[in-house]
Design a protein that fits this description.
The chain has 3 helices and no strands. 72% of the residues lie in helices and 0% in strands. The chain is an all-alpha fold.
Length: 79
């Protein structure tokens, strides 16, 4: 696994230490990797949502009623 050297502010370092001391994580490295994984996942989810919103905006205004839209959404879920 690649090793990195990073500088932390005192409050951030203290927080990392407290997480390890509370046995939430076995090491600072494990915690930092978990934080990065979570941020990557959030970024992927945000990109997916942005893509859906852009597609929706480009598709135009629907002439369907809200009940018809709901029925179509349910049909797609169960298809």
């Amino acid at each position: 696994m690649p090793r990195q050297s990073i500088s932390l502010t005192e409050p951030n370092d203290e927080w990392l230490k407290s997480q390890v001391n509370n046995q939430e994580y076995s090491s600072k490295s494990e915690l930092v990797n978990d934080l990065i994984r979570n941020e990557r996942k959030k970024a992927e989810q945000l990109a997916w949502l942005r893509d859906k919103l852009e597609r929706s905006e480009k598709s135009g205004i629907s002439t369907l009623t809200k009940d018809e839209i709901r029925a179509e959404a349910l049909r797609r879920i169960h298809a």
